[in-house]
């Protein structure tokens, strides 16, 4: 395994090793302070970022490496210069690249011409590092529960795609509720269900959030209007009516339910402020785990 483009790239042994490594690094970070000594990584971001940028940058430096941030206006990949040309040039300089792009195809094309680790820091198709950090958090909160019931309320987007694939790989239980016009990608669903046949995972889709959260251990939501969707904001807000994660919805779940959000959050839209700040929220533990998972992925891909 050389790169992380999709959760589908991971075998169960890879996932478990990444979780184990992340836990070790979280408990004893000083042990790994020189693990990527003098290795340099490029962060190529076409989209704004807080957690992905900062967690990778901090993580690389904590491991003894260095990071170069290349934002939307720095190289204009695919506009000023072809993706394949940039990939082959950076292959001579860098130990690895983290890409945050609008198009998933940009990442797959880059990988063809870059022989070292390529990490998907978010694309329109998947967000694998986010999903890994989410499940690391769930394992920490429910250490003895083999199959916590995971309920996702929101858009059938890149985050849900990665969560579906990861739940399927882990043999877990996931129920998602999305508007009928915003269901997950059919190819992702088919892929997740195919994996689930082998692992025993349970995947259920609804348009009614109340069905999805019944006795759930985890309630997860994401923004309704993502970056680049401002023009269809009114249309999306109408479609999501009745899907807000609020106290009423939480009351239908398990008493020990945890509430998750990948951030940024639009409080008062997909989630209420009192839920974000409430006793069930683990949103900021979840955000912290982005750092530990990112470090583990980097080390694992670099064969360290």
Folded structure, characterized:
The chain has 304 residues and is of the alpha/beta class. The chain folds into two domains: 7-127 and 287-301, Rossmann fold; 130-285, Rossmann fold (3-Layer(aba) Sandwich), CATH 3.40.50.1370. The chain is 41% helix and 14% strand. The protein contains twelve helices and nine strands. The strands form two sheets. It has a five-stranded parallel sheet. Strand 5, helix 6 (158-170) and strand 6 (173-177) form a beta-alpha-beta unit. Helix 2 packs across helix 12 (283-301), helix 3 (83-90) crosses helix 4 (104-112) and helix 5 (128-141) crosses helix 12. The longest helix is centred in the C-terminal third of the chain and has 19 residues, at 283-301. The protein is globular. The chain starts with 11 loop residues before the first helix and ends with a helix.
């Amino acid at each position: 395994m050389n790169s992380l483009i999709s959760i589908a790239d991971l075998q169960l042994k890879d996932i478990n090793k990444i979780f184990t490594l992340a836990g070790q690094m979280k408990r004893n970070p000083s042990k790994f302070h020189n693990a990527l000594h003098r290795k340099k990584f490029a962060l190529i971001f076409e989209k704004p970022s807080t957690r992905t940028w900062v967690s990778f940058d901090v993580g690389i430096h904590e491991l003894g490496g260095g990071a170069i941030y290349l934002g939307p206006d720095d190289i204009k990949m695919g506009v000023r210069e072809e993706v394949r040309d940039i990939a082959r040039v950076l292959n001579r300089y860098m130990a690895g690249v983290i890409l945050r792009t609008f198009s998933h195809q940009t990442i797959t094309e880059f990988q063809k011409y870059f022989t070292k680790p390529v990490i998907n820091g978010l694309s329109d198709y998947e967000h694998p590092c986010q999903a890994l950090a989410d499940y690391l958090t769930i394992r920490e909160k429910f250490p003895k529960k083999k199959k916590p019931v995971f309920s996702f309320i929101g858009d059938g987007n890149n985050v849900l795609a990665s969560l579906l694939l990861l739940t399927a790989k882990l043999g877990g239980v996931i129920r998602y509720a999305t508007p009928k016009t915003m269901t997950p990608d059919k190819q992702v669903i088919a892929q997740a269900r195919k994996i689930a046949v082998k692992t025993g995972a349970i995947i259920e889709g609804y348009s009614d959030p109340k069905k999805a959260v019944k006795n759930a251990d985890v309630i997860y939501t994401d923004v309704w209007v993502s970056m680049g969707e401002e023009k269809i904001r009114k249309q999306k807000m109408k479609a999501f009516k009745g899907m807000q994660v609020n106290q009423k919805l939480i009351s239908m779940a398990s008493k020990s339910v945890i509430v998750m959000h990948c951030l940024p959050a639009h409080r008062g839209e997909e989630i209420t402020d009192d839920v974000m700040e409430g006793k069930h929220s683990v949103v900021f533990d979840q955000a912290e785990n982005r750092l530990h998972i990112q470090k583990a992925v980097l080390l694992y891909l670099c064969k360290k």
